[in-house]
Amino acid sequence: MELSYQSTRGREANVTASQAILKGLAADGGLFMPCFIPRLDKTMKELSTLTYQETAYEVMKLFLTDYTEEELKNCINCAYDSKFDTEEIAPISKADGAYYLELYHGSTIAFKDMALSILPHLMTVAAKKNQVKNKIVILTATSGDTGKAAMAGFADVEGTEIIVFYPKNGVSRVQELQMVTQKGKNTHVAAIHGNFDDAQTGVKKIFGDRDFAALLKKNGYQLSSANSINIGRLVPQVVYYVYAYGKLLSGEEISEGERINVVVPTGNFGNILAAYLAKQMGVPIDKLICASNENKVLYDFFQSGIYDRNREFILTSSPSMDILISSNLERLIYLSTGCDAKKNADLMKELGETGSYTVTPDMKKFMVDFIGGYAGEAENQRTIKELFDRTGYLIDTHTGVAASVYHQYKERTKDETRTVIASTASPYKFSGNVLEALEGKKSLEDEFKIIDRLSEVSGTDIPQAVEEIRTAPVLHQTECGRDSMKEAVMGFLA
Asked: Is the dihedral of CA 258, 259, 265, 268 positive or negative?
């Protein structure tokens, strides 16, 4: 059965998967959602024997129904290959009673590789399917990891240009260096004078500018997105939660049908929404624990039912979660309304105009599987150090937030359910903050001296992705104001 997609705001429907991937964002500003969430057609026992690539096919074939088996398997095999430093692609490490799902073994050492390794292949196939003649311009805002992963994925991919905006002084130095040293004739990056929400809002405005779209079309271009608003980003993320359950089952860590909890550090809500979709597909997941840092807009939402971005924006040591506008939450809101696009559109309009909205009691009840938690900077550092001291297992600052929230939840509820924690980045991507957690003091040394020191202190190897940027030349130096992003795009494409 072919699965079609529709906008969460109601003005686009009966869109194929390949068309939704090409568009990225619906014309009415909504996000594409499948008209129903498919169920897995293999048992978890059967899935537990599969490789990551085989699991990916079994999940993605159910969502991307206008791709042939050959097309989809080719995309998967091109994506999940030697770019990853382990054959497992997403291995699981057990530490201190929890299972850490390591999503950072790709070429940019962050979980965004899991989806952005395959998106360029899905998109190029989609372009051929839909007879697209224009050059596709991938326009993306990043809070640190998406940018590099997108640039790496699309670098020199024929028929595409990739433009990334990131907040100046709002990402780690390693994240920034990974972006500004990226090779590829079609890669462009600009640091904006503002925060991630400014970058994300600016990108959405460009997507919503019909006159600009017409101008681009006249010049042979069309926009698409590599952010998690693109369904081609979200669907591949569902895979690793299915795979994780299968690996726990095959490793006899759990019994068939046993429910697990999942903890996800998130700001934009896409990564935990993928876990929710895995649950709806039939994976025995119980609680979905949403871990926030001090920008705890999601925590407050799950507590009160009020989403309110009218608050101070805080720069933390987990910058990829420094977000006040969680774009992917719109998909859950849409589902919680019973897929009432008008109700959802009204709430999103209210968010745009006032900065907040309130869900109904029935909508809040729909989200009962989600539990919010947050961790401050001191607690995050303490968790990283205590976990390392007890077990020798080293985690980054985002995973530290998740581990902190997990411990809070377990202490509060006494829930002994086996739990998977999404480990979203290598500790070396945030080496200064991780080293500070271990040694109890901030190092003022050069970034790479800190990296070397972290390796020495922890006894862990420095990832190749970090070694590569140690001496790489800076190739991108563009900066712009948050109100001149459209002009920057025009400049890149000129």
From this structure: positive
